[in-house]
Amino acid sequence: MTISLVLLAAMAVMYACGVYFLLERSMTKVLLGFLLVGNATNLLIITMAGQAGIAPIVQDGVTAEEMTDPLPEALILTAIVITFAVSAFLMALIYRSWRLGTQDRVEDDADDVAMREGLPMQAEENEAAQSDTEFEERSS
Predict the structure, then answer these.
(1) Which portions of the sequence form the region Disordered (predicted)?
(2) Which of 57, 103, 124, 128 is most exposed, with minimal Cβ within 10 Å?
(3) How far is CA 71 from CA 6, 50, 56, 100, in A?
């Protein structure tokens, strides 16, 4: 079994670019990254499937070694459907984000910034204040 170096190089470049795009803040770039990683995975499955053979139909005089394994094809079709569904969901999120805020960037949450800087989070402060108020109401 020989693996085409061109397919291997294309797959590596697609994975690298896809991961780079997935780490961006723009939802459009995240969508592009997800599509690149999905297509790179399809190339990986094709590459690992081996040499092409004849159709996997049992006939007289045809051995199992001459037939192509149908499992990689089924896995690729499943991966295409999953990639399509997640892409449609991401496009709906991008559209909704654009309609609400005319931008497709994900902003930092106040609690995330507080956690990164080592400050108490707003949700914890609100819970502490609420429990203090409930305790004072019960004691009086």
Answers:
(1) 111-140
(2) 57
(3) 23, 12, 11, 44
